[in-house]
Design brief:
The complex is a heterodimer.
Chain A (H helix, E strand, L loop, with lengths): L22 H11 L9 H12 L2 E2 H11 L3 H8 L7 E2 L9 E6 L2 H5 L2 H11 L5 E6 L11 E3 L2 E3 L4 H10 L12 H6 L4 H7 L5 H11 L11 H9 L5 E7 L8 H6 L3 H15 L1 E8 L4 H16 L8 E5 L9 H8 L23 E5 H5 L1 H7 L1 H5 L9 E8 L5 E6 L4 H8 L9 E5 L8 E2 L11 H4 L9 E6 L4 H15 L5 H14 L7 H14 L3 H5 L2 H9 L5
Chain B lengths: L3 E6 L2 E6 L4 H7 L25 E4 L6 E2 L10 E3 L3 H16 L13 H8 L22 E2 L5 E4 L8 H9 L5 E4 L6 E4 L15 H5 L5 E3 L17 E6 L8 E7 L2 E7 L11 H5 L14 E3 L16 H4 E3 L2 H17 L12 E3 L5 H15 L4 E3 L1 H16 L16 E5 L3 H4 L1 H14 L2 E5 L12 E5 L4 H14 L5 H7 L3 H8 L4 H5 L2 E4 L1
Parallel strand pairs in B: 1-5, 16-17, 18-19, 19-20
Antiparallel strand pairs in B: 1-2, 3-4, 3-5, 6-7, 7-10, 8-9, 11-12, 12-13, 14-15, 20-21
Chain lengths: 560, 520
């Protein structure tokens, strides 16, 4: 069974070419799918079902899944092999150990000893039972080092703690307390939705209020939300809506923060937005690194359906599978369509040609989260929370060498000095502020001397070759070597590049190697790579990936 | 009238017609923009991933791939700005850094090296290779396919092979596996090519810009380096196998066929199948008859002779054309001119071969009728085609097919019955599959046996062998009983419809239902 057909004279007569379908594998796949939809766009969902049941995806199961979904083996495999959370096991390969511990090795966790934990675990854990993997940011940077054991997310991880959890079986998903549908409605939730649906508040009113409030896309691009609705509405329907919950930018954890506390605020905003652009369906794409959030969303979408606030199936939850690039909106759309997460070329923009070729409104979780408050409390209430010239409040994910890291609701246009001193309890004892990331891994690294820059979208940071992105601020001190930081960040991009275009695919990998050269760096080669990545990459990942390297060479020469 | 878009390219005012891309306009204007992942051939979608063709567009922050970008009115485009050229050149340097040296790679004359040469790039002494420090499995050299060598150290992950396999030939064997700098074309589930479901159509070889996928017939025994450097001649030809009529270019070295490429003919648009592309070795087979042979006088003819274990030279001897022709002609004329029972013209019959062209068939019948003086002439197509010609003549008024197979691309629905195009006419099959994939055509397959095209079919019906007539009659019955036909069309174009209507009443579907097995 599953033996590869031989070639030449040894080829089995009477059999078609290639890997044969076997009935047992087909039956196993059918059990795993349990009647799930076989539509092309459900490929990633169905791969999850197989991975969840068998702990990996065997070649024979890929063959069988292809048969069920009427896809070729290559069409299934290329998707499965793109995403980190699928373990493809070919004939003769070992299956992964039954339990997986993922340790975050992104920058905030690295500063807090992630590498030591990984080394300790690799030494102490029984490899037959436990597999140790490095993983990109898990969105728990305020409680770094973070890890995940099975489906349990772990704060302040240590080798001993993780191994003890493995021993005691504490690796199922742990859902925190949150405001469920009943509680949310009791506190006045979904009244605004009723008013919007009743025509009391029109889409035009809403767009005006969002514009007056200065609400911008908080996933990182900062596009004015009201304007976006106008664009989407200008293209003929049927239209769709997507919610981007792929919060993968290292250092960012605000979306998780809100969804683990008050998910319906986002749902209400989303249903209102869908109503405003007449979207026929909402696809909610949530990263697979957040099992607790996924459990909450699953339960609350069902509650919304039962309460008849939405039609069954109106909000469809889609699980990511471990790919940072799927936070890029067009890559996310490809992923929702069940494909490899490759960003699309623009034009056309997704407002015109988006999911399944339809005009699509896409919003970040937090952008939607604010809609109810803005309408109920008034646009002015929201806009006034910002610094002069920088309307609005922002949720800053602060981590690194500060006393009280966490999500800080603070003005747009704030400076890093104010964030540290007034919101984060100041620097850790014995640490002197040295540098910071204004916007996660891609926003660049600025020196402490630039502590007075107004942090917001647009010019104030752009002129320094930086941006605020998803508002993930990571603070470094004199204990940190900025070259190590830059290498960590470029390694992340090399790992997460989709590989589609030459500048990003080759550039991230080569920068990572050029920065590791012993002795003097070849700055000419590094600058040339930086230029081609910035100028010629298809999407923002490749264009922004050299930012930290640029700043390392510009501002931190003493660390070279 | 097609849309006209006026824009500026390198300072010159130019016009794009319809949906032309910047690259296409540049080509028309004689401006060479480098390109790797874009293949300027029918059926290939531009993908814009290699970034070798990036151009500078005024007012835009980043450069744009000219192969995929369509100009807008008044756009100012520069393909030769310092910034554009810098990126184009860097793309080649980065790719060259990951490749074996030109003369050590699979094809030193590839499109990649031809373009790299224009930037004077022969490699990179400053950029590290992606293979540095990587696991050895990244240097895949796969020679498991009998005709194609795979050298992935020369691969630039441009995805042309994926498009060739999935969008042009629609065999769906190649995918782009993994991610980032590990991205790599794979066969099925990263299987060796020769063990995979690959049908060796060779479209990927024809598309590959680096030779990472290359014909073994041009390479050394290890399948690593091209050794046939040039051809003595390239002959335009037509594939000698099935009736699709694919046009080919046959490349010859030292009077031997070393390679066959698809040419842009009306029925194949550069596509070929395994037979047309790689099935040329018979031309050089030592068993092939290359000189006239005449039966030896000491080897008399016998009707039941079994020649399997005999040497040809025991029975025949080589002869000149003149001698052989004279011998054949004298034998034939002796029979023709003899008198008596079983003699004379009518004692001779001619049977033409389907391997001949139409012109040859004409000449052959003329020879038999005029030269021999008999109408005893026929052609082997009588065996397979005569019945369908008669039926078509009676039913449609013409003994020929009413539409070329490429019209599948214009059809809403196609029914395939009594045919297995992926095996018998693979290039024709590509158009059926493409029509489903690209145009959403509805494909219905009826075949007692399963066939690979069923994966693309909206409905597949595996009926019991021998019930095809009953099945078609049942369909006829239902179409008429439920009035699913176009009354206006029938009135304008059909005769005898009332008779058919009467007859169809007896062709009841229920009678057949019992032994039809319906799938999906």
């Amino acid at each position: 069974m599953n033996e590869m057909p031989r070639i030449g004279k040894g080829r089995k007569v009477g059999l078609p070419k290639g890997r044969q379908l076997d009935d047992a594998s087909l039956d196993e796949v059918r059990v795993a799918l349990a009647g799930a939809s076989l539509a092309r766009d459900r490929l990633i969902e169905n791969l999850h079902l197989i991975q969840d049941m068998f702990g990996c995806i065997e070649a024979r199961h890929i063959r069988a899944l292809g048969e069920e979904m009427r896809l070729s083996q290559a069409e299934v495999y290329e998707v499965a092999s793109f995403y980190d959370h699928f373990d493809v096991v070919r004939e003769g390969d070992a299956k992964p150990a039954p339990l997986t511990i993922r340790v975050c090795d992104s920058v905030s966790c690295m500063m807090n000893g992630a590498n030591d934990i990984i080394a300790d675990l690799e030494e102490s854990a029984n490899p037959d039972l436990i597999r140790i993997l490095r993983a990109p940011c898990m969105g728990r940077c305020a409680t770094a080092p973070a890890a995940r054991i099975g489906d349990r997310e772990v704060d302040d991880a240590s080798c001993d703690k993780l191994l003890e959890m493995a021993d005691t079986g504490a690796f199922d998903v742990l859902v925190p307390d949150y405001v469920n549908l009943n509680a949310y409605r009791e506190a006045g939730g979904y009244k605004l939705l009723a008013r919007v649906r009743g025509g009391d508040v029109t889409p035009d009113d809403l767009m005006q209020m969002l514009s007056d409030a200065g609400l911008r896309g908080l996933g990182g691009a900062g596009f004015p939300a009201g304007k976006k609705w106008g664009f989407v509405r200008s293209y003929p329907g049927p239209r769709l809506m997507t919610i981007n919950g792929d919060e993968g930018e290292p250092g960012t954890f605000k979306d998780r923060h809100y969804l683990e506390r008050d998910p319906h605020r986002m749902f209400e905003g989303a249903i209102i937005a869908a109503h405003a652009v007449e979207a026929t369906r909402i696809y909610l794409y949530m990263r697979d690194e957040y099992p607790a959030v996924l459990a909450i969303l699953r339960a609350e979408i069902e509650a919304l359906e039962l309460a008849e606030l939405i039609e069954p199936g109106f909000i469809e939850l889609r699980r990511g599978a471990g790919a940072y690039i799927c936070g890029e909106e067009s890559a996310m759309i490809e992923s929702i369509e069940g494909k490899r997460g490759l960003p699309r070329h623009r034009p056309p923009y997704i407002a015109q040609v988006g999911l399944f070729g339809r005009p699509t409104l896409n919003h970040n979780v937090e952008t939607l989260w604010w809609i109810r408050d803005i309408v109920e409390k008034g646009p002015k209430w929201f806009a006034d929370q910002g610094k002069p010239g920088h309307p609005g409040a922002r949720s800053w994910s602060v981590s690194g060498r500060v006393k009280n890291p966490g999500v800080k609701l603070a003005p747009a246009g704030i400076t890093v000095r104010e964030l540290i001193e007034e919101y984060s309890g100041g620097m850790l004892d014995g640490h002197t502020f040295k540098a910071y990331l204004p916007g996660g891994a891609s926003g660049g690294i600025l020196p402490a001397s630039m502590d007075d820059v107004a942090l917001d979208f647009g010019d104030s940071l752009f002129k320094h070759g930086a941006f605020v992105g998803s508002h993930a601020v990571v603070i470094f001190s004199d204990h940190d070597n900025i070259k190590d930081v830059a290498i960590n960040l470029i390694d992340f991009f090399a790992h997460e590049s989709c590989g589609q275009c030459t500048p990003c695919r080759g550039g991230t990998e080569k920068l990572a190697k050029l920065l590791r050269v012993d002795g003097k760096l070849d700055e000419g080669a590094i600058r040339d790579l930086e230029q081609v990545m910035r100028d010629a990459s298809i999407c923002g990942l490749g264009q922004a990936a050299p930012n930290p390297v640029n700043h390392l060479l510009t501002h931190f020469r003493e660390d070279l | 009238m097609t849309k006209q878009t006026i824009f500026t390219l390198n300072g010159k005012t130019v016009t794009a017609h319809g949906d032309e891309t910047i690259w296409q306009v540049a080509k028309r204007e004689g401006v060479d923009i480098p390109h790797l992942c874009y293949l300027d051939k029918p059926g290939y979608r531009s993908d814009g991933n290699c970034r070798a063709c990036v151009v500078d567009i005024e007012g835009e922050r980043s450069l744009a791939a000219s192969c995929i970008r369509k100009p807008t009115e008044g756009m100012v485009v520069k393909s030769t700005s310092e910034r554009a050229v810098k990126s184009q050149k860097m793309v080649f340097e980065m790719l060259a850094a990951d490749m074996p040296a030109r003369e050590e790679g699979p094809d030193d004359k590839s499109a990649f090296w031809a373009w790299a040469e224009t930037f004077a790039i022969t490699g990179s002494d400053r950029l590290p290779s992606k293979f540095d420090g990587a696991a050895t499995e990244m240097h895949e050299n796969d020679i498991s396919n009998p005709a194609i060598a795979v050298n992935l150290d020369a691969c630039i992950s441009c995805g042309l092979c994926v498009r060739a396999c999935r969008e042009v030939q629609v065999n769906d064997v190649i995918g782009m596996g993994m991610r980032g700098s590990h991205s790599v074309p794979v066969f099925d589930i990263h299987d060796p090519m020769g063990h995979s479901t690959c049908v060796t159509c060779g479209e990927c070889v024809q598309a590959c810009p680096t030779g990472a996928l290359y014909e073994k017939s041009l390479m050394d025994d290890a399948g690593k380096v091209r050794i046939v450097q040039d051809f003595d001649k390239s002959v335009k030809s037509v594939c000698p196998f099935c009736g699709v009529g694919c046009q080919t270019t046959v490349n010859v070295k030292d009077n031997k066929i070393v390679q066959v490429d698809g040419r842009d003919g009306p029925s194949n648009e550069n596509r070929l199948c395994v037979k047309g592309r790689f099935g040329f070795d018979y031309a050089q087979s030592p068993e092939r008859l290359t000189k006239p042979l005449i039966r030896r006088d000491d080897a008399p003819k016998a009707g039941d002779i079994d020649m399997r274990f005999m040497k040809v030279s025991d029975i025949f001897r080589e002869a000149t054309w003149e001698e052989a022709m004279a011998r054949a002609a004298s034998g034939l004329t002796a029979i023709r001119d003899a008198k008596g029972k079983g003699k004379g013209s009518n004692a001779i019959a001619g049977f033409g071969s389907a391997k001949g062209s139409n012109e040859e068939a004409y000449l052959f019948q003329k020879f038999i009728r005029q030269g021999i003086g008999t109408n005893n002439v026929d052609h082997c197509t009588r065996l397979c085609h005569a019945s369908s010609v008669a039926a078509l003549l009676e039913g449609m008024g013409s003994g020929a097919v009413s539409a070329p197979f490429m019209d599948a691309m214009k059809a809403d629905c196609v029914i395939v019955i009594g045919a297995r195009p992926t095996t018998n006419h693979p290039v024709a099959a590509t158009y059926f599959k493409q029509a489903v994939k690209k145009k959403g055509m509805k494909l219905i397959i009826m075949d007692p046996r399963g066939q690979d095209m069923m994966r693309y079919a909206e409905h597949s019906l595996k009926f019991k062998p021998g019930t095809d007539v009953a099945l078609l009659n049942a369909m006829l019955h239902t179409i008429i009983a439920e009035e699913l036909y176009d009354e206006q069309y029938i009135q304008a174009n059909a005769s005898g419809f009332d008779a058919l209507k009467q007859k169809s009443k007896r062709l009841c579907a229920g009678k057949n239902g019992g032994y039809l097995r319906h799938r999906q």
